[in-house]
Write a structure and sequence with these properties.
By secondary structure, this protein is of the alpha+beta class. The protein has helices at about 1-40, 45-70, 85-95, 95-110, 120-135, 145-160, 165-220, 225-250, 255-270, 295-315, 350-360; strands at about 275-280, 320-330, 330-340, 365-370, 375-385. Helix content is about 65%, strand content about 10%.
């Protein structure tokens, strides 16, 4: 009986909050009428976007109530109301979420007061279920109806508040627009880096190499020893230029990924990182077996995430060990890099993290970093792909 009363009390609390919210929306109709009147008169057109934002907050409060009862969140899919007044008015009126919220608000005027039915159910249920469950040992009959009312309220709210396909599509377009801009910015930054590396490093060495060979040719007949020394210097510079070229190529797409696969490449990173790195691989194989390989772009993004994370851990964390976990799952590739350092990493600062975020977002992936003061720092990446 105690558990039955507890569940009924929890359902009653949710229904009472829903009734209070419904009563508040009835009062809110006054604001809507005033806004509509002033909008028609043009002088109050600026109130309309603010009114729509207020409706969104009310709908958000209902979403929280439903999520608290069911344990399942109702997603939101709103277009941001920002920019000049004309643009904000257009978004407020034509936004696909506005009509859905208004439809819910009108419907909530009716079913939002289901909580009033809990009063007679409590008055009837306490004696009836007390006798049935306490004396006769039977299952309760009346008080569970309160929970069913709460389920009904949640089901109707979920059906009315869940985003329409048009709203989801609009949000998806916004996300793709942002990730495309980030990908273009990352691509431009990468091209500038390659150009800078070639111009300041390899090109300068090749120019110096050409000059030394020319001097050696002129000095060969009259001073063979000097010419030989110049040729030895030229050979050293050629080797250095080749090393820099390999470094530039490695920055574009590491050859080790092609030769050894992601798992082998990450193990090589771990071995050269300066930290005691544990690499855990689930579902991936070393080498070039195509059956266990992700697409090249996904492997490259995962590799650079691990490389940047281990570099940051070695420089800033103060930790001597780290763990890298690569997991192949049905929807893609999961990457997790953790260290036991001092934490406190700034998610908004530094070009390294921004570069990782752009690489991941360009592939429609997600990156989450947690780094409380005192550690640990954990970077988790999900990269969708088809195996």
């Amino acid at each position: 009986m105690r558990e039955t009363v507890r569940q009924a009390a929890r359902a009653t609390a949710g229904l009472v909050m829903s009734a209070v919210l419904a009563f508040g929306t009835i009062l809110f109709i006054t604001v809507l009428l005033i806004t509509a009147t002033l909008t028609l008169a043009v002088v109050g057109a600026g109130l309309l976007p603010e009114t729509v934002l207020l409706i969104r907050r009310i709908a958000g409060a209902k979403r929280n109530l439903v999520a608290r009862w069911t344990g399942k969140a109702i997603p939101e899919a709103y277009q941001p109301i920002e920019g000049p007044l004309r643009q904000r008015l257009r978004t407020a009126v034509r936004g696909p979420g506005t009509l859905g919220d208004f439809r819910w608000m009108v419907s909530h005027y009716v079913y939002g007061f289901l909580g009033l039915l809990t009063v007679p159910l409590w008055l009837l249920g306490l004696p009836v279920d007390g006798v049935r469950q306490g004396l006769l040992g039977r299952s309760p009959l009346v008080l569970p109806l309160i929970g069913r009312l709460a389920d009904l309220d949640a089901a109707w709210s979920t059906a009315l508040l869940k985003p329409s396909p048009e709203a989801l599509l609009a949000v998806r377009i916004e996300e793709l627009t942002e990730t495309r801009a980030g990908a273009i910015a990352a691509h431009g930054a990468e091209l500038r880096r390659i150009e800078r590396d070639l111009h300041d490093g390899t090109q300068a060495r090749l120019v110096s190499l050409s000059m030394r060979i020319g001097i050696a040719k002129r000095a060969y007949e009259r001073d063979p020893e000097t010419a030989l020394r110049l040729l030895e210097d030229a050979q050293s510079q050629a080797e250095e230029a080749l090393t820099e070229l390999r470094h530039v190529v490695r920055g574009i797409h590491p050859p080790i990924l092609t030769d050894r696969g992601l798992a082998g490449a990450v193990r090589a990173l771990a071995a050269s990182s300066g930290l005691d790195v544990t690499v855990v691989v689930d579902g991936l194989e070393d080498g070039a077996r195509s059956g266990s390989r992700a697409p090249a772009a996904v492997e490259a993004a995962a590799y650079f995430v691990v490389a940047e994370s281990l570099t940051n851990a070695a420089k800033h964390s103060g930790s001597e060990c780290a763990e890298v976990r690569l997991v192949r799952n049905r929807g893609g590739l999961s990457v997790r890099v953790a260290d036991e350092g001092q934490g406190g990493a700034d998610q908004g600062g530094g070009s390294g993290l921004l570069g990782m975020q752009r690489r991941v977002a360009a592939l429609d992936g997600t990156l989450l970093m947690t780094s409380p003061v005192g550690g640990p720092t954990v970077i988790e990446v999900e990269l969708p792909c088809v195996w």
